[in-house]
Every structure is written in structure tokens, then in C-alpha cells.
TrEMBL record:
Source taxonomy: Bacteria, Pseudomonadati, Bacteroidota, Flavobacteriia, Flavobacteriales
One GO CC term, this protein: cytosol
Major site of localization recorded for this protein: cytoplasm
Provenance organism: Flavobacterium restrictum
Keywords: Cytoplasm, Elongation factor, Protein biosynthesis
Protein name in UniProt: Elongation factor P
GO molecular function, one term: translation elongation factor activity
Family: Belongs to the elongation factor P family.
Pathway annotation from the record: Protein biosynthesis; polypeptide chain elongation
Superkingdom in the source lineage: Bacteria
Length: 188
């Protein structure tokens, strides 16, 4: 058993008969009253995010996980197929376990958290950013550059991203996987 002082981002815990991953936390020590920990938990079974407050010293049941490097192979409907880069074992995961499945390119490396008790995959950690090629973008209109204007662009995985007006088809761009937003243009 762990306590609230052991809470950190990425920790997997059992709560309300489900397994949750802590995605955000904040220790609060008010001037009056007892301390507490405000958390944001993501359910690993259905992907829903839950806000919860634990009182200081509250016991939480920790789930032991191992992280393994997997390579994304291909999507098939709602299933995404991955291969362990060490053992070459293949697994299929449901689309709702992934944070941003529309940004996954074939051959991309991800970290998969596996429950050590049941050997079942719990979550997939995407890289912080991905580099994708723009397959379709409206042409930028001259004169709109004085403001911080953006336009919609489609990348090679089919995802739609808002990009600055100077981005054209064929450009490679870096995308933040946490927010799905444009970061920068990448020189080839």
C-alpha cells in the first residue's frame, strides 16, 4: 500500500474497482484545515478522466506495472497492432486506450505499460512529439500574415492540425502528441 505522499504522474492505482493512471496532481496545504492531494485520474479501461481529492495520509492501492518498448504496426478498425521490439510478440489494443491514435504512424515506437499481475496492457505512452508530412493544406492567402492566422492541414495519418499560413503540402511538421497542436516546421 502506498500513501498520498507517493503520488506522482504516471502512477497506476486501484480505485473504485478500476485501474486509474494519475495524469495530474497537486499537493495542497491550506492555512486552515488538513492537507490534501487534488488529482486527475484517467481510467485505463474506458479512458474517462476523473477529478478526485485524497486527504493527506490516505492509503492508495498501487498497481505494479512494467514499461516495454513496442513498435506500432498497423490499425485494423478499432484495433491497433503493436510488436514488442525485444521479444517480437504482437499485441492488439483498443483505440480508446491510446491518447492520440490519429497521430500514430506505422513504425512509430511507443512505451506500453503492462500490469505485472495479469500481464495485460494498461496504457500506451506516445512520444512527446511526432514528425509527420502534410498531405493537404489550403494555400495561404497573401495579406493575412499580419495576424497570428492559422489554417487547417491534413497530415499523412489522416489527422487534422491547425498550422500557420506558411505551411504547404509536402512540408514536414512536428506535432505535440499531448495536445495535438503544431509545434514547428522541420527542415528535411
Amino acid at each position: 500500500m502506498a500513501s498520498t505522499s507517493d503520488i506522482k504522474n504516471g502512477l497506476c492505482i486501484k480505485y473504485n474497482n478500476d485501474i486509474y493512471k494519475i495524469i495530474e496532481f497537486l499537493h495542497v496545504k491550506p492555512g486552515k484545515g488538513p492537507a490534501f492531494v487534488r488529482t486527475k485520474l484517467r481510467s485505463l479501461s474506458n479512458g474517462k478522466v476523473l477529478d478526485n481529492t485524497f486527504s493527506a495520509g490516505h492509503k492508495i492501492e498501487e498497481v505494479r506495472v512494467e514499461n516495454h518498448k513496442f513498435q506500432f504496426l498497423y490499425p485494423e478498425g478499432d484495433l491497433y497492432h503493436f510488436m514488442n521490439v525485444e521479444s517480437f510478440e504482437q499485441i492488439s489494443l483498443n483505440k480508446n486506450i491510446l491518447d492520440s491514435p490519429d497521430l500514430l504512424k506505422e513504425g512509430e515506437s511507443v512505451m506500453v505499460s503492462i500490469n505485472t499481475e495479469t500481464d495485460l496492457p494498461l496504457s500506451v505512452d506516445m512520444p512527446a512529439s511526432v514528425i509527420l508530412e502534410v498531405t493537404y493544406a489550403e494555400p495561404g492567402i497573401k495579406g493575412n500574415t499580419a495576424t497570428n492566422a492559422t489554417k487547417s492541414a491534413t497530415v499523412e495519418t489522416g489527422a487534422t492540425v491547425n498550422v500557420p499560413l506558411f505551411i504547404n503540402e509536402g512540408d514536414k511538421i512536428k506535432i505535440d502528441t499531448a495536445s495535438g497542436s503544431y509545434m514547428e516546421r522541420v527542415k528535411v
